[in-house]
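Sat 14:20. Reprocessing the chain from the morning session after the first attempt stalled halfway. Input below, unchanged.
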Amino acid sequence: MEARLATSKEVKDLGKSWRAILKLRDEARKFIKFEGIGSKICSRAIYDAASNPEAKVDFVLKDKTWIWRPARSDALLTIQCQLFLIELKDEDKALWQATKSGKFSCAATYTEIRDKSSEVEWWKLLWFHLTILKHSFIGWLAVINKLSTLDTMTRWGYSDDSICVFCRNFLERRDHIFFECSFTRRIWDDMMKLCLVSNAQFILVDLMAWGSRELKGKGLRVIACKLAQWPMVYHIWLQRNAIVDEERIWTE
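Finished this time. Tokens:
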């Protein structure tokens, strides 16, 4: 028996977003099962029941009554005995296999279908109980180098100018705009002094390695450094976007 996930005619009547989602119906079917006996039926039992492997439950069910032919094997007899113990209801109960409860969960389903990678050491620098999510999100994009810096935009053909909008001297790359630029480096120096840090690195890869090594525990200095880093990245990127997109300059 298959789950009902919408027919072709119904899909045409839906909006573009829903049509895109429903293209995943074949993937969704992998996660759906129906509550039943739970054991596979052998080919001999299927033959004895005068059925076939693709048959549905209604082949042997009419008006909530089982209409099996007399059993000619122990396997079929066992199946019939188990079925008579099942309470017949008006509707089948579909279970979502990605969760223990059988109920659909976006988080559990995403965990099942996403590509699994090894855990990185620096995740605790970004995601902790006092984090500000918008700051950590932009910080995460910076760490994995997915922000649309001007050097990337130029390669994509969306920009003719790839020079840093702050210093106007060097190519705008991730490490330059956040750490090497004379404008942002001065801000980082001041912030690190306030956090009583004198040995922090100013290349993002090295900064993450330093943070993973030095910023452990829940002490005041550790929390202060974590809370200071990502607002810095966030507001530098915000200022950069204001200049690029709106030609507007904010004060330090």
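Residues 123-246 form one domain.
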